[in-house]
Design a protein that fits this description.
With 82 residues, the chain is mainly alpha-helical. It is built from three helices and no strands. The protein is 37% helix and 0% strand.
């Protein structure tokens, strides 16, 4: 009766998985910063997905990982909103 339902990363509930995906956290270190953008661009240029979290790299949430995800991530870093 008093438990709050999970509303996603910006509005977690009592039973939110603390290891849930973090949109934009490409390197999986728990934060979204310029190192994630760098890793995403390196992946796009090289095709090497080593150490990359593909679920988190799908920044535009359109499925797959491409240049629009890098653009979305950089815009987030500059503006602070998705």
């Amino acid at each position: 009766m008093y438990a709050r339902i999970d509303g996603g990363p910006s509005n977690p509930g009592y039973f939110t998985d603390k290891f849930a995906a973090l949109r934009g956290d490409v390197n999986g270190d728990g934060s979204v910063d310029i190192s994630d953008a760098t890793m995403l661009i390196n992946y796009l240029l090289s095709g090497n997905a080593s150490g990359l979290n593909l679920e988190n790299a799908n920044c535009d949430q359109n499925g797959g990982v491409d240049i629009s995800d890098a653009t979305t991530l950089i815009n987030y870093l500059l503006n602070g909103s998705w």
